[in-house]
Write a structure and sequence with these properties.
This is Nuclear pore protein. The protein is an all-alpha fold. Among the domains are: 70 residues, no CATH class; 48 residues; 141 residues, no CATH class; 173 residues, no CATH class. It contains 33 helices and no strands.
Amino acid sequence: MNTQNPKKRTFSPILTLDPIRIENYSFFNAQIKTLIKKYRHSTRNSKFLDEIFKDGEIDLNKCMLKDKIEKKDKINIGNVLTGYFEDKIIEHNERFIQKCKRIAQEKIENKKIQTDSPEKKLALKYRKIAFNDMKFIENNFNELNPLIEFSNPFLYMIYRFFSSKMSLKYDNQNKRKTIFYNELSFLETEFFDFIKKSVPNQRNVVQQYVELKYSNTDIFVESYNGRLLFAEIFVHLRCGQISDAIDLLNEFSEFFDSTASDLKNLIVSFYNGKKIPTSEHSKILKTKSDRFKILIYQILTENQKITDIIGTFNDFLWFRMLHATTATDLFSRHELKTNSDCEMITSLFCKKYKKTFEILLSKDYHPVELFFTLKKICFSLKIIEPFAELVFSILKQFTKQENKISLINMLDIEETTISDQKRASNKSSPNARTIANLLIESDNLDLANLKGDVCPIKPNIVNNLAEILHKKGDRTNLLRLYYLFDNDTKILEILNEYLTDLILKDKKEIQEHNDVINYFLSCSSSLEKDKMLLLVDLIHFSNNRDILTLKNCLLFDNPSRDLLPQLKPVISKLLPIITQAITEADDLPMAQTFSKLCNIIGIGERCRSMMGEQLIMML
């Protein structure tokens, strides 16, 4: 063992390097070999340090064993690269974990929105609207394009999108197929309209806009005869003017041949739906190129990196939609949903309409802007329910009844989500059912009909109202509805149904609708009225159970043969007590009459056996 003074002994520290970004592996290998050669006489192995610091004590003797350590373990490039790839795997895993966290957070937020929806709808129901705003809505609700001053730019953007109804002109150079063609065309047209308003005259609009917007003294912008040609190319692409961009490339072919000789072919290929290799963008990055030129190549090679030229939300949305292959791909981008307004536009353009309506109805937008924007969306898409919810939340604040009726009738539009064949087979439209449900929920059944010259609600809606009330067993509102429409036949049907239920459920008294029943008993004769008389007589008999009441019953006074089969469930229910009354009275004629009635009604053998031996013996 060496007994020299440890203080005089020295050893080289472990080799440490800052994290580096490897872009060229050949250059990286050369650097590693240089470092190996430079530190070949130094200790560089982690195992060496493990031995020195074993059990928390420093063994200084081992610090001097350089020769042995160097022979035992030497650095090789394979180990370094293995470590590099291990770090990459760890980095990829961390990104994956962050992505999972983000998805989980979004699901939690969506669940929270779903939970909060009833409260938000309740808030919508009791929303107070200023008198002047309510007056404007009532006076202009039927106008196609009323004059509205929007304070929210996102609502105004949606309103313009559905108001434009532009016939999309397909640029013969733009054959690129995308599911967002309409939305891209809208954003491009909007941008061109914007720059036209920004320039003094309407000649050479793009050139003037570039001269005003960007400086030709910028060190990252190439200027040719005072013109920023790459910037002009980008603005033409942003406006959807592909042909104009090609014309500009041809006009200044000398400049573009020397700076970007392949640009014209790349633009033509990209807008014909061909995929451009990313290497084209990489070549541009190696040189200090015009920043507009770099952005153009980013667009063509579908590079997702955003530059400062993409400055507004509309620019950003256009850039993302240009490369998106599916609506889900675009909607999943978290950066497009930084706030509720941006998320609303993104969900609308991705055709996630449920999310769009959810945001519209939950946020505190100006009522006039919300009303007419929602109307535009729902009438364009033929999805009426969200707008109908808003309508019925403010309907009671209308001052004129005829306006209420007109607005409700306006909601019953044809729905495009049902095929023509299905629509032909379905008599009731989904929109009419929605309106009918909301009429009941908002307690506005009195609007179903108004006397005088006012146009009533459409029959389609009324039929759905009746169907819903009938399924709910709400006879009171059904009677009220048919009374408004003077439909005595339907009223009698409902009353007869009620009386039949009383008998089948062993109820002994007419507890409801007594006044209405007495009124119709005094009216002119009809089959339904005769049925009502017969049912009332049978109810009286079921209470008294004597032969005299039975004899006075219309059942034994030549009733209509068409009416008798309708009484089968009632007679089957009362068969035992009728038989008992006839048997106790020993009335042979009534027994014979009742037996014939049972044959006409179609009572089965099981019911016949209930007539009893005595009645059979009488016959």
